[in-house]
Amino acid sequence: MGKFTEPAKELLEHVGGSDNISVVTHCATRMRFVLNDNDKADAKKIEEISLVKGTFTNAGQFQVIIGNDVASFYNEFTEIAGVGDTSKDEAKVAAKQNMSFIQRMISHLADIFTPLIPALVVGGLILGFRNVIGEIGMIGPDDLTLVEVSQFWAGTHAFLWLIGEAIFHFLPVGITWAISRKMGTTQILGIVLGITLVSPQLLNAYGVAGGGDIPFWDFGFAQVEMIGYQAQVIPAILAGFVLAYLELGLRKVIPNVISMIFVPFFALIPAVLVAHVVLGPIGWTMGSWISEVVYSGLTSTFGWLFAAMFGFAYAPLVITGLHHMTNAIDLQLMSEFDGTNLWPMIALSNIAQGSAVVAMIFLNKKDEKEQQVSVPAAISCYLGVTEPAMFGINLKYMFPFLAAMIGSSIAAVISVGGGVMANSIGVGGIPGFLSIQFQYWIIFFIAMFVAIAVPFVLTIILSKTKMGVNAYKRLGKK
C-alpha cells in the first residue's frame, strides 16, 4: 500500500469512479479532471479528504487542489483508477466537450496568447528599464539621464531595444505561430505569414500616420499598398485563422502523395494576399477603434467610473475566462499609445485577491489544514497567479472575494485618476510595478497600498457580519 492509497481511493469514489473520468492530468498543485458527468462528483465529500485543500471547476475541468505532493499522488491515483496518462493539451481538447460556444471562443483566445505571455512579460520589464535609464532625469543640476552621462548605459539602452523590438514590433509573427500551433497546422507557415506582415520591405505601421507616399505592388489591373502591421494584434489574428482554415480545408481535398507540395502553396499565397488586401486594413481599423474607445473611456471625465467598474468586475471575469480578452486590448493599446492604462488595474486586482487571503490566514490562524492552502495561495497571488487564492479560499467563503473586489475597485480608480501607464503586460502582482512607466511609480505604489490594505481590513470586518458568520456556519467552521 502506497502513501496516498487511501485518499486516492476516496477521491476516485467521489468523482464518480473510473467510468466517469474522461481525462485526468495535473499541474503544479492540482489534479485536473475532465468528467463525463460533472454531477457525479461530490465536491463536499472530496473536500473532506485529508489530503485535499479545495475544489473548483474552471474551463470545463473539475480541479482538486492537492498541494506540493500532487505529482506523487497523481501517480498512485492513476494506477488505482486504471486511467492512462495524458497531456495537458489533450485534457484541454477533452474539456471543450463541457464548454458552451462562448467558453470555447474564450478558450481559443487564451490558447493564442498564453504561449506569448513569457515574452511579453520580459518585453515589459525591458521597456520599463529603458525608460528609467533613458527618459528619467536624475543626475546633476540639469537632470541628465544615465544614457546622457554614461556610454555604458547608452550602449545598454540601444542593445535592449533589439529585444524589445523583436517582442513587440514583430508580435504578429508570434500570434500567427501560436494560431498554427493551436490549430494543429504547419507552424513554419504560420511564422512565414507573420513575417510577411512585418517585413522590412513594407512601410512601417508607425510611419503610415506620418504621411508621405505609400509604396505599393502594381499588378496592372490593381494596386496593393505595401503597409506593415508591426505590433498589430487583430490583423495577425484574422490572417492566422485564414491560413489555418485554408490548410485544414486543403488537406481534406488534396491527396496525401502531393499534399506536401500543394497544401502549403495554395494555403500560404492566398492567405498572404487576403491579409494585405482585406484583413490587414479591416483589422487595423477594428483595433484602432477598440483601443481608442478604451483609452478615451479611461481618460475621460467618467474614467473613474469605468475604472471602478473594471476593478470591481475583473476577478469575476477570471472565473468565466473572459479576462483573456484583455490581453489583446492591452497589446492594441500599446501599439497605439506606447503603453496601456488597462494592465495596471489587472495587477492591482490580483494583489487585492491575495490581500483578502492574507486576512483569512490571520482569521483562521488556528486552522492548520486551511493554512496549507491559504499560505501558498497568497504567495502565488502576489506573484500574479490568482486561481488558487480565488477558488481555494475567497470564493469558498465569498466575503473575502467581495472585499477584494471592493479594494481592487478603489485601487483602480486611483490608478486611472493618476494616469498610470504600463509599458506592457508584466508580472500581474506586486512585482508588476517593474512594468509601470517610471514617472507613475509613486501613484501606483499608493494604489498598490490600497489594494493591500482595503481588502485585508474589509475581510476582517465582513467576517463579523451576518455574511461572514453564515459563511463559517455553511462550511462548518464555527
UniProtKB/TrEMBL annotation:
Gene Ontology molecular function terms on file: kinase activity; protein-N(PI)-phosphohistidine-sugar phosphotransferase activity; protein-phosphocysteine-trehalose phosphotransferase system transporter activity; trehalose transmembrane transporter activity
Positions annotated as active site in the UniProt record: C27
CC terms in the record's Gene Ontology section: plasma membrane
Membrane topology: Multi-pass membrane protein
SUPFAM superfamilies per record: Glucose permease domain IIB
One GO biological process term: phosphoenolpyruvate-dependent sugar phosphotransferase system
Ranges where the PTS EIIB type-1 domain occurs: 5-87
Domain of life: Bacteria
UniProtKB keywords: Cell membrane, Kinase, Membrane, Phosphotransferase system, Sugar transport, Transferase, Transmembrane, Transmembrane helix, Transport
Pfam families, alphabetized: PTS_EIIB, PTS_EIIC
Location (main, coarse): membrane
Domain (PTS EIIC type-1) ranges: 107-478
Signal peptide annotation: none
Subcellular location: Cell membrane
InterPro entries (UniProt xref): Glu_permease_IIB, PTrfase_EIIB_Cys, PTS_EIIC, PTS_EIIC_1, PTS_IIB_1, PTS_IIBC_treh, PTS_Sugar-Specific_Components
TM annotation in the entry: 109-129, 158-179, 188-207, 227-246, 258-282, 302-322, 342-363, 375-395, 402-426, 438-462
NCBIfam families: EIIB_glc (TIGR00826), PRK11007.1 (NF008236), PTS-IIBC-Tre (TIGR01992)
Protein name from the UniProt record: PTS trehalose transporter subunit IIBC
Originating species: Salipaludibacillus neizhouensis
